[in-house]
Amino acid sequence: MNREAAEGGASDGAAKIALIGFGEAGQAFVKGWGANCAARTWVFDIKTDHVDATVREAKRADYVSLGVTGCASPAEALDGAALVVCVVTADQAGKAAEAAAKRIAPGTFYFDCNSCAPGTKRKNAEVIEAAGGRYVDTAVMAPVYPKMHKTPLLLSGPNAAEGLTALAGLGMDNAKTVEGPVGSSSSIKMIRSVMVKGMEALVLECVLAGRRAGVDGMVLDSLDVTYPGFDFKAKAAYMMERAMTHGIRRAAEMREVALTVEDLGLGGAMASATAGWEQRIGDLAIKAEGDDYGKLADDLLAGLFPAELFPKEDAV
User: Fold this and answer.
1) What's the mean pLDDT in 114-119?
2) Residue 215: pLDDT above 60?
3) Which one of 11, 101, 191, 233 is at 20 to 30 Å from 209 when CA atoms are compared?
4) Contact by Cβ (8 Å): 302, 211
């Protein structure tokens, strides 16, 4: 596909879209794009190669339910695509770029939406640009629900302005460019995550420790006095659910955050500790049920301390 076709592809109803990764973000984008766009979206997700047949079939069912074309390889998804959107876990972003470079057509946009360190994004850009693709550092700046394809995005790098126009053709008009080279938008995303995911890890440690000690209610009530309007119990339930549902993915992101901070000469200890909590909770593979922080905490404690059949109740 030539450069002109790639530039016009986003608004061309017949143009093929390649989507690499079909987890929460990929599915949210497709839902937002709508059925007509889904019909021209070709998808590859690594879970279709999983050793567990249940995992493979569940991912194929996701393809069918949203009306996209599932592919057996990244090359199949990319063949003839006008633009590529990559939404994989942070630890797979480099491999995804390398796989895409083997088939990407000259002039095709490659939107790297993965939560990676600026240095990782620059390496990915080199791979894609060497193959003739047009790399766009894309930072997803909020949870993809409820806004789906309207989720705020930051684009940076030499192809950001043209990439913005391409995304607008998909209705993704809540994106904006950031001045600077590849890595600029990701720096904002990564450094913001020090706070956002760090708060999540602090809540996990605070609530689980409080629950074990039987004083969680008093602790959270006292925090509401110190920080009026935050509603720590509701926020605790939300943050625990996020870690239970996406802990492994968040841990991969936070390792990239730690790398970002380390590259800036600040060590990255807080981000590394956050990654540890996210990984620990994600590895439990406990389904989050309900919005009662106490129930979620008890479920997590039962997983962390399986020999204790009855975690301590809140005594306050």
Assistant:
1) 95
2) yes
3) 191
4) no
Look at the chain and report how many structural domains it folds into. Answer: 2
Please say which residue of 182, 203, 229 terminates a domain: 182
- 139/259 same-domain check: no
Together in a domain, 204 and 162: no
The Cα–Cα gap between 167 and 113 comes to: 12
Is the confidence at residue 8, as pLDDT, over 60? no
Residues 265 and 143 in one domain: no
DSSP-assigned letter for residue 173? -
**Which range (54-63, 231-240, 303-312) has the least confidence?**
303-312
Identify whether the C-beta of residue 138 lies closer than 8 Å to the C-beta of residue 211.
no
209 and 159 part of one domain:
no
Q: Is the entire prediction scored with pTM above 0.70?
A: yes
Tell me which residue range forms the domain holding 258: 186-304
- What is the average pLDDT across 75-83? 95
Determine what percent of the chain is predicted with pLDDT higher than 90. 91
Give yes or no: residues 202 and 54 share one domain. no
The DSSP output letter for 10 is G
Answer whether residue 315 shows pLDDT above 60: no
d(C-alpha 284, C-alpha 245), whole Å: 10
Q: How far apart are CA 207 and CA 234, in angstroms?
A: 12
The backbone torsions φ and ψ at residue 311, rounded to the nearest 5 degrees and listed phi first, read: -55, 150
* Cα 201 from Cα 273, distance rounded (Å): 8
C-alpha–C-alpha distance, residues 107 and 7, integer Å: 8
CB 5 within 8 A of CB 31: no
* Residue 7 placed within a domain: yes
Q: Residue 201, SS3? A: helix
